[in-house]
Amino acid sequence: MQTATETAARVDVLGIHVSVTNPDDTVETFGRWIDRDERHLVCVTDMNSLLHARADEHLTEVFNTSGLTVPDGMPLVWAGKRAGFEQMARVAGPDLLERVMAAAAERGWTQYFYGGAEGVAEELRYTFQERYPALKVVGVECPPYRPLTEAEDAEMVARLNDVRPDIVWVGLGAPKQERWMAEHRDRLNAAILIGVGAAFDFHTGRLDRAPLWMQRAGLEWSYRLYKEPRRLWKRYVLGIPRFLYGVLRKPPTPVS
Questions:
Q1: Integer Rg of the chain from CA
Q2: Which residues face 70 on adjacent strands?
Q3: Which of 62, 123, 155, 173 measures 20 to 30 Å from 196, CA to CA?
Q4: Are residues 227 and 114 in the same domain?
Q5: 3-state helix/strand/coil string of 168-180
Q6: Are residues 140 and 228 in the same domain?
């Protein structure tokens, strides 16, 4: 359960309350939570996951009551700036994962990687421990694509709680990972549960990211569409007009 803490301001983007934050502030917030033994979940939110969330009452509640719902996507940053939050900056899942691994190696935070295809989480551990030798990864797990049985789920919870990670990185894809985090938040002793979508695949070389100039210009979606047109065309060809039309009808506003 989330406990009392300083909370970042939020901006209402189509009914989803996106945190006014940036990469540095997000990492420092994680540090405060871990130091104070608080319990939070974090939604890393791009346009696609926001549209999923606003279409589902339960997901809307998950996103709006999270410890942080960070803006992973320039459209959300632009929406925040339009609402007057000039300090808002993109917090992309792959970039945040890298930043936190560097901080964790220095500050002793422990990690657990949960998700991805078979072998991906183990490869991710190797990748980051090679890069940051002091990094402590206390467990990895690639669950099956099917739902776990009640007994399997209880065993998974016991495994995670036994090793007591500070942060559980969840790579199940949106919105599955947000549902998983909401279901397990009160059952897991980790300070932070954070869903990072395809970040596992980016850091293990299974997917490659758009050039930096495209990321900064808000065009990373077009690069991903070029790379995976059959899987992603509906997400962007249908999603972008829905998002833009929604924002034009209901401009982003600060959450009071």
A1: 17
A2: 44
A3: 155
A4: no
A5: EEEECCCCHHHHH
A6: no
